[in-house]
Amino acid sequence: MKKEILCALVVLLLSCSRNGPLPAANFPKDLHVANLEILASDIPPAPYNGLFFTDKNTGFAIARNGKLVKTMDGGLKWSSIVLPVNCFLKDIQFTDNNNGYIVGHDESGVRFFSTRDGGMSWNVIKLGKPNTSSTGMFFLNRNRGFITGINLFVQTSDGGASWSEVLQDNIFGFNDVNFRNHRDGYATSTDGVYYVTYNGGDTWEQKVAGTKEDIRDIYFSQSLHYAVIGNNYLLDLKSRSIVDSMPKPIQKALFLSNDKCIGVGQHFGEGFWPIGDIFLTNDRWKTYEQKKYNVSEAIEVNAITRIDDNKTLMIGNAPEKSMLIMLRY
User: Fold this and answer.
1) pLDDT in tens, 236-277
2) How many CB atoms are closer than 10 A to CB 107?
3) Where are the domains of the chain?
4) Is 98 exposed, middle or buried (0-12, 13-18, 19+ CB in 10 A)?
5) Mind listing the pLDDT tens digit for each residue in 92-102?
6) Model's pTM, two decimal places?
7) What's the per-residue H, E or C state across the chain?
8) At a CB cut-off of 8 Å and minimum separation 6, what does 6 contact?
9) How far is CA 152 from CA 105, 118, 136, 187, 219, in A?
10) What number of CA atoms fall less than 13 Å from residue 163's CA on the CB side?
11) Are 34 and 44 in contact (CB under 8 A)?
C-alpha cells in the first residue's frame, strides 16, 4: 500500500512539474530573447494552442482545428494522430508515459479523449449539454481528474470512464482548474468568485475576491498562487488581492520561479495580421524583454511547455506554417 501511494505521488510530481516552477536548486540564469532558437522542425501547420511532453523527447501538440501530432525526438519530426472525433481542442495532459487526456468541444458539448497506450489510440466521450465549451482540465493521477467549462465542473475517479458534478450552484461557468500539489487546488469562475480545495478535490470552498472581474487562468510560481483577471492583472489567490500584472498581449504564461516567467501571445500592429510575441522577465514583470515575430513567422505564439529543467518549447503559428521555438536557460 505504501509503495502504491509513493508511486502515485511520483506520478503527480511528474505530471505537474513540467509546467510548474522549477525546484529551488534549478533556478535558471536570467532569461534573454537572445537565447531563443527556431528549430528545424517538420511540424504540420495548424493553429496549435496546447503542448505537453512526457519526457525530454516525447511530446504532443493539439490545435484548435482538432489536429493532434506527436514527436519522439524533442520536436524535430512530428507525426499526425487521428482522433475519433474532430473538434476544437482546448487542453492536453499526461500523467505518465501511457496515460493521457485531451479536452475539447463542439456543438454537441464537451469532448473528453483518453489514451492508455501513449497516444497510439484514443477513446472519446461527451460531457455536458450541447454548445457547452471546455475551459480547463487537470488530472492528479491516471484516475482522478477534473474538467471545467461553461456551466460545467465535473470530476472522475476512474480515468474518465464516468463523471459526476463537483458544483452545481454556478449559473455562469468555470474558467480554469489547476492544482499546486496533490491536495491544494483551485477552480476559477465569474464575478470575482473562485473555489479552493485542501483535500484533493473531495470538498471545495467558495472564495470571493475583491473584484467583480471574471477570474481566469491559474498559475503557480515558487510561493505564489496566481489567477489572471482583467487586462492581465495577477490576483494572489491566498490574499485575494492584485499583486502584479503582465503585458497585455500575453495569452499564456509559464512561471519558472517567483521572478522568472515566460509569456506568449500576440498583438496587433499596423497591418491586417497580428504579430506573435514572446515575453521574458527576470523580476516578476517589473521589466521584460519582448521578441516580436513577423507575419511570415508567427501571428501568434499560443502553446508552451517546459521539456526539462533547462529548456522550454513554444509553437508559433503563421497563416501557412508553424514553427518550434526553443528557449534555453
Assistant:
1) 999 999 999 999 999 999 999 999 999 999 999 888 899 999
2) 8
3) 1-82+248-329
4) middle
5) 999 999 999 99
6) 0.91
7) CHHHHHHHHHHHHHHHHCCCCCCHHHCCCCCCHHHEEECCCCCCCCCEEEEEECCCCCEEEEECCCCEEEECCCCCCEEEECCCCCCEEEEEEECCCCCEEEEEEECCEEEEEEECCCCCCCEEEEECCCCCCEEEEEECCCCCEEEEECCEEEEECCCCCCCEECCCCCCCCEEEEEECCCCCEEEEECCCEEEEECCCCCCCEEEECCCCCCEEEEEECCCCEEEEECCCEEEECCCCEEEEECCCCEEEEEECCCCCEEEEEEEECCCCCEEEEEEEECCCCCCCEEEECCCCCCCEEEEEEEEECCEEEEEEECCCCEEEEEEEC
8) none
9) 12, 28, 10, 11, 21
10) 20
11) no
The letter for the amino acid at 40 is A
Residues composing the chain: 329
Residues 312 and 174: their CA atoms lie apart, in Å, by 28
